[in-house]
Design brief:
alpha/beta, 8-stranded parallel β-barrel, two-stranded antiparallel sheet
């Protein structure tokens, strides 16, 4: 059996293979509520053979949304809307996961196809979508042309930590079995971790220990509400690629601290702390973030997930076989081919006769193959 298709267990949850569906924001929610779009979008990945299907970045508070189209978990009604999605994913043999998020200073943003810039009066006039006050670790805008966020007070920080905890409770009640906390790509927790966005001089800033405090408090709040049998992951930007920002050595120490608080896996991404310009140190190629997952795994002694520009079956299998990561996550490749896990299993000789497919599809595909072989067409 190829390594990519071996089971993997975290706490009491076993994944049937090492393939995860990375959270992919769809911006199709209204008032944070999931709808038919989310059921079909996420359900097809469960049918496609992935072991872990993450719902997209889901705001833990209304002010923590990135856009007006974000999913939310700040009300029980939102949890009820997500429950059928989680049930379907689990019924089809995948683990239902969800990414909890607070956008911080990146809040009040337009959807990508509307410009991925701050919401303004034009959006309110055209779509009835008004801007709102963004919060941040410090009063430093995300980029040129962005409004200055309100520097969070002790009360604001306490509210945000509690919001993560309550969102975890709702995720548990909705039927999810894995949480990933979005602490990368310039979202609020990353803003606290990075000296570029965090220039506080109180107990939440300054030293690496202080800058990491918010992430630790969030992990603690979630663990109080999350089933102890279920795993908890954090997505971290392993490096900011910028002088004076987060470096890999910082992320290793953050991973160690989070592991001590009950975090089971680090999903290793990079970049995103500020602006749209790609940092010069950031070189994008297939698997360019895998070395970070490898190093965090070995140095912090915690399970890791590799993500970013992964699509080749042999490359992905080698990552697992060589123990550079414990799972791999794909996003845009799965948008193009939701059945990538099943097609990859066939390519790696892990599936025979479409046995890994749901019987409703596999039976017909097996009959088709037999007929094509009999006719000499394949």
């Amino acid at each position: 059996m190829p390594s990519l298709f071996t089971p993997f267990t975290l706490r009491d949850v076993t994944f049937k293979n090492r393939i995860a569906v990375s959270p992919m924001s769809q911006y199709r929610a209204k008032h944070g509520l999931a709808n038919d779009w989310h059921m079909v979008h996420l359900g097809r990945f469960a049918l496609g053979g992935a072991a872990l299907v993450y719902a997209e970045a889901t705001a833990v508070s209304q002010e923590g949304r990135r856009t007006h189209g974000d999913l939310g978990l700040w009300t029980d009604e939102q949890a009820e809307a997500l429950a059928p999605v989680a049930r379907f994913i689990e019924a089809e043999g995948a683990v239902a996961g969800i990414q909890l998020a607070h956008a911080g200073r990146k809040s009040s943003e337009r959807r990508p196809w509307h410009g991925e810039t701050p919401v303004d009066a034009e959006d309110e006039a055209e779509r009835g979508e008004a801007p709102w006050q963004a919060l941040g670790a410090s009063a430093i805008p995300y980029a040129d042309g962005w409004s200055t966020p309100k520097e969070m007070t002790e009360s604001d920080i306490e509210d945000a930590v509690n919001a993560f905890g309550q969102a975890a409770r709702r995720a548990r009640e909705a039927g999810f079995r894995m949480i990933e906390v979005y602490a990368a790509h310039g979202f609020l927790i990353h803003q606290f971790l990075s000296p570029i966005a965090n220039q506080r001089n109180d107990r939440w800033g300054g030293s690496p220990e202080n800058r990491r405090r918010f992430a630790i408090e969030v992990a603690r709040a979630i663990r109080l509400e999350w089933n102890n049998k279920y795993p908890l992951a954090f997505r971290l930007s392993a490096t900011d690629y910028l002088d004076g920002g987060v470096e890999l050595e910082d992320t290793i120490e953050t991973a160690k601290a989070l592991k001590a608080e009950g975090v089971d896996m680090i999903d290793c991404s990079t970049g995103g702390i500020g602006g749209k310009t790609r940092p010069k140190r950031m070189v994008i190629e297939q698997g360019f973030q895998v070395p970070y997952a490898d190093t965090v795994r070995s140095e912090a002694k915690v399970a890791s997930m590799a993500v970013g520009f992964l699509w080749d079956a042999d490359v992905c299998d080698a990552i697992i076989r060589e123990e550079r990561a414990d799972m791999i996550a794909l996003a845009r490749e799965l948008l193009d081919d939701p059945n990538w896990p099943l097609h990859t299993a066939a390519k790696l000789d892990a599936d025979e006769g479409h046995a890994m497919w749901s019987v409703e599809a596999g039976w017909w595909l097996m009959r088709r193959d037999r007929l094509l072989q009999k006719m000499g067409l394949r």
